[in-house]
Amino acid sequence: MKRGYRSLSLAVLFFLSLSSINLQAQDPKYTTKSTSKSAPVITNADIRKGTVPSSGPELPPSPPPPLPEALTMRLESFSRSTVPHGVYFEALDGKPVVSVNQDALYNPASVTKVMTTLAVLDQYGVNYRFPMKVSYTGEIDKSRGVLVGDIIIEGENDPSFATESVFLIGEKLRSLGVTAVEGNLRVGSGVMVNMNGNPLVAGREFLSALDAARWNSRVLGVWNTIQNIKAFNRSAPYAGVTVTPGAVVVDDRQGERKPLMTYQSSPIIKIFKGINAFSNNEMTHVMGAHIGGASGVQQFLYRKVGLTPAEVTLQTTSGLGGNAVTPRAVTKIMRYGVTWLAKQKLGLNDILPIAGVDNGTLQRRFTSPDLVGSVIGKTGTLSTTSALAGVLYTKDRGPLFFAILERGNPHSLRTLQEQIIWMVASDSGGAISIALGSEMSPSLCEDAVIAVARQ
Fold it and tell me: Residue 184 belongs to what domain range?
C-alpha cells in the first residue's frame, strides 16, 4: 500500500514568559537633582500619565518546564491529582518519553478492540474471508430462467454481511440466467444479515433485498447510497430475482442440495478497519466469538504479546464492562501490532483510523494543521472513562507509542488528551503527517467476491 508523506508546520514550544518592571517612585524634590544613569527616574506625573519608562534591560523569558513536569502540572490543574490519569509515551527504541501512573490499572474501554483485532488476525490471517454458501434444491430451467426449488444459504457468522451483499448475490444469479425462483428460502447455520443472527429474521432481511418486488424504503435507501461505490456502480437499476411463494424456513438439512455459488466477504483486515474506525461493539463481539471471546483474547495477550495477569484482565472483547489494563501494557500491544503487521507488509493504519482523515470517532479530532494526520489510534469511551492509544509521529523522536487512559467526564477528557498530544509533539520537534488522504473503504462489502460453483 502506497502512502503519501508530507511535513506540516511545526508546533511552537509552549512556554510562559515572565517579565517585571522595576518601578521606583521618587519624591519630586529629588528628581531634578538626580544624576544617576543606571536607571531612569520616574516621577509621580509619569505614573499618572502612564508614561513609565523601562527600568532597564528586559529579562530573558523563563524556559519552559521539562515535559514530565509540565504534564504533571497540567493533569493536576485538571483534576487536582494525577491519580485519575494514566499516561505513557515510548519511543521506538523503547525509551520512555513521559510517564504518569504507567503501571496502574485503568479501564481501556474500546481500546480493547485493538486487542481483539490483533488476536483474530493472528489466528485467521489478514486475508481470510468469511464464506456464505448458496445452494439449491430441484432444478434450473434454463429455458425460462427459473430455479424450480428452494434457495439455501449458510455461513460462518460474517458480521459484515449486509443488504448490499445480497445485491451482489442477486446480480450474480441473474448473470447465471436465473431471474426467478419458484420455491422458498432456507436458512442454515451461521447466517447473519445486517448483524442479525436469528435465522428467520436474517432470512427475511435476505429475501427483502434479493427480490426487488419486496423492497421497502430502507432497502431502496441502501441501494441509492451505494451507487457511488465502485463495486456497486451499475448503469442499470437492480432487477433482482423474484422468489415465490418465498417463505423463510430454517433449513432441516434434509434432501439433496446442489452448490450454486459462494459469497466471500472482504478480507477481515478491511472489516476490522471499519469496526475500529466506528468502534462497533456488536461486530467486535461476533469477531471475538470466533476465537473464544474475552478469554481467547486474553490468552493471546499472555502467550503472544507477553503480558501478565497483573497488566491486563478482560471481561469483554469490545471494551464494554470491567476490563482493566495498564498504560505501559497498551503500548506493548501497539508495538506488537506494528511489528506483526510489518511482517505482512502492512501498517497500523490498515486496522486503525488516521485522526482528522478517516471517517469515524477520530474524524473530527486532531484536525489542526500542526497535528492532522499525525496520529493513528483508537478511542475508548464509557460513562466515566475516556481512552486514546496508538502512535504519534514526530519530527525529532520519530514514532511514539502512547496510551492515555483516564477516569472522569469523557467530553472534557478528550480535550485534555488533545492537549497532551500537542505537548508531547511540541517537545518532540513537532508532529509529522503520515497520510495525504483516507485509505478507508466506504463499504465493508466493497471488496467481497463471489465464486460460482461448477454446474
Answer: 131-265
Nearest to 207 by CA among 242, 160, 234: 242
88 and 141 co-located in one domain = no
Residue 238 and residue 277 in contact, taking contact as beta carbons nearer than 8 Å: no
Asked if 397 and 314 sit in the same domain, the reply is yes
Residue type, 85: H
E strands, 72-122, are: 85-91, 96-100
Give the span between the Cα atoms of 320 and 447, in whole angstroms: 30
pLDDT-based confidence at residue 22 (cuts at 50, 70, 90): very low
What gap in Å lies between CA 419 and CA 412, rounded to an integer?
11
CB burial of residue 346 (10 Å; 0-12, 13-18, 19+): middle
Helix (H) or strand (E) holding 412: helix 410-427
Q: Give the residue-averaged pLDDT of 58-81.
A: 85
- 32 shares its domain with 106: no
Q: How far apart are CA 251 and CA 199, in angstroms?
A: 9
Domain count, the chain: 3
Tell the residue number behind the cell numbers 478491511, with chain if given: 270
Cell of 254: 434434509
Residue 147 in domain: yes
Q: How does DSSP assign 281-325, residue by residue? A: HHHHHHHHHTTTHHHHHHHHIIIII---TTTEE-S-SSS-SS-EE
In a domain, 167, yes or no: yes
CA torsion, ordered 94, 95, 101, 102, to nearest 10 deg: 0
138 and 242 assigned to the same domain: yes
Q: Which amino acid is at 217?
A: S
Whether residues 239 and 317 share a domain: the answer is no
Question: At residue 90, what are phi and psi to the nearest 5 degrees?
Answer: -135, 135
119 and 136 housed in the same domain: no
Paired strand residues for 386: 381, 406
Strand partners, 324: 313
Is the residue at 452 inside a domain? no
- 244, 265, 286: which is the final residue of a domain? 265
Q: What is the pLDDT of residue 53?
A: 52
Which tens digits make up the pLDDT trace of 215-249? Answer: 999 999 999 888 877 767 766 788 999 999 999 99
Say if strands 131-136 and 258-264 run parallel, antiparallel, or are unpaired. Answer: antiparallel
Mean pLDDT in residue range 1-22: 30
Confidence band (pLDDT; 50, 70, 90) for 41?
A: low
